[in-house]
Amino acid sequence: MRPLTDDETKVLFEKLSKYIGRNIVHLIDRPDEPYCFRLQKDRVYYISEEIMRKATPIGRQNLIALGVCFGKFTKTGKFRLHITALPYLSQYATYKVWVKPNGEMPFLYGNHVVKAHIGRVTEDMPEHQGVVIYNMADVPLGFGVSARSTVDMRKVDPTGIAVFHQADNGEYLREEDTLF
């Protein structure tokens, strides 16, 4: 495991800021203990510094994973968030969308969220902004990108796409071979 370079850190923080805004500070400066991001085989892990120090003697070939996988860098240098980052994204999310019970299963199968399935939306949500999707019982289901702003969403027909799908909890089953 190695620390992220400046360019990698910039790409990671730009992607995280789409979803949690300025709350990125809360990920690094935690009151309980300091955490950091580390890179292992193009995957970015969020790990406490204490555990990282204890894992230092383990060789890179023997180390499979350590901490929470936030996502991976593609071959083109872009960063793709994994569903394993959902607990941290949902904790600090700035924009949220709640789906009705009839919209949970289509989203968990990998489909976009249509307007007819939306129960509530955070006010003043801009277009193409990262959002966390919840069911009506406030359980995080996944995350995506808003297709329309809150104002435009009210004008769209019920079959219009409101949120583009990025990741959902169903990926634990659909992509269990390639997720880790």
Structural write-up:
The protein is of the alpha+beta class and 180 residues long. It is 28% helix and 30% strand. The protein has helices at residues 6-20, 24-28, 49-54, 86-92, 101-108, 150-155, 171-174, and strands at 2-3, 35-40, 43-48, 68-73, 79-81, 96-99, 113-114, 118-121, 130-135, 140-146, 161-168. The protein has a six-stranded mixed β-sheet with strand order 7-11-10-9-6-8. A five-stranded antiparallel β-sheet has the order 1-2-3-4-5. The longest helix has 15 residues, at 6-20. The protein is elongated and about 55 Å long. The mean pLDDT is 90.
What's the quick description here?
The protein is an alpha+beta fold and 180 residues long. It is built from seven helices and eleven strands.
Sheet bearing the most strands, described? 6 strands, mixed
Distance between the termini: 15 Å
Q: How helical, in percent, are the residues?
A: 25-40%
Mean pLDDT: 90
> What sequence of helices (H) and strands (E) makes up the elements?
EHHEEHEEHEHEEEEHEH
Portion in strands: 25-35%
How many DSSP H or I helices? 7
SS-based class: alpha+beta
Q: How many strands appear in the DSSP assignment? A: 11
Physical arrangement of strands within the biggest beta sheet: 7-11-10-9-6-8
Q: What is the rounded Rg?
A: 17 Å
The gross shape turns out to be elongated
Note poorly predicted spans: none
